[in-house]
């Protein structure tokens, strides 16, 4: 009988420790630079470039396919690249030939960028 009570006490302590442990795989999977681009224009987005403001080049287009009007693009960062860098430049181009550059955007403080036919805003 003493063995069962001891095993139950150990199991209770282990369960309490498990409950109190944060879930790093869920928390650390989110990079504070992640944001969405919402296409509220009348054209498809055909290219998106995101680079640190300190960079002299845009790098590669991050799109794998065009973003139709009314759709949202999720921009996700590799947490091991440019860690701690929050100020980025953004360049969006459209199938109608228009393009919109935004410089000095602190992406650590926004959740989404909304592009329309007349402006780009962020929130």
Mean pLDDT: 82
Please state the CA-atom Rg, rounded to the nearest Å.
22 Å
Strand content: 25-35%
* The CATH homology group name: Domain of unknown function DUF5300
Shape verdict: globular
Annotated CATH architecture: Sandwich
Q: What do we call the CATH topology? A: Immunoglobulin-like
Across the major sheet, the strand order is 3-1-6-7
Q: Counting H and I runs of at least 4 residues, what is the number of helices?
A: 2
Q: Kindly state the percentage of residues in helix.
A: 10-25%
E-strand count: 7
- The span between the termini is 62 Å
SSE order in H/E notation? HHEEEEEEE
Uncertain regions: pLDDT < 50 for 5+ in a row? Answer: 1-28
User: How many distinct folded domains?
Assistant: 1
The CATH class is identified as Mainly Beta
Largest sheet: 4 strands, mixed
Structural class: alpha+beta
Task: Give a verbal description of the structure.
This protein has 123 residues and is an alpha+beta fold. The chain has a single domain, classed as Sandwich (Immunoglobulin-like). The chain is 19% helix and 34% strand. The chain is built from 2 helices and 7 strands; from the N terminus they run H-H-E-E-E-E-E-E-E. It has helices at residues 2-20, 24-27, and strands spanning 35-40, 45-52, 72-75, 87-94, 99-106, 112-116, 120-122. The strands form 2 sheets. It has a 4-stranded mixed beta sheet, with no helix packed on it. Strands 2-4-5 form a 3-stranded antiparallel beta sheet, with no helix packed on it. Strand 6 (112-116) and strand 7 form a beta hairpin. The longest helix has 19 residues, at 2-20. The chain starts with a helix and ends with a strand.
């Amino acid at each position: 009988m003493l063995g069962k009570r001891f095993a139950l006490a150990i199991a209770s302590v282990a369960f309490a420790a498990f409950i109190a442990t944060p879930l790093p795989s869920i928390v650390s999977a989110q990079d504070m630079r992640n944001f969405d681009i919402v296409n509220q224009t009348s054209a498809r987005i055909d290219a998106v470039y995101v680079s640190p403001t300190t960079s002299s080049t845009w790098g590669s287009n991050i799109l794998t396919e065009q973003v139709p009007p009314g759709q949202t693009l999720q921009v996700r960062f590799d947490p091991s690249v440019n860690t701690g860098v929050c100020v980025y430049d953004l360049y969006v181009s459209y199938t109608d030939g228009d393009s919109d550059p935004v410089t000095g955007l602190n992406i650590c403080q926004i959740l989404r960028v909304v592009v329309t036919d007349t402006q780009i805003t962020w929130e």
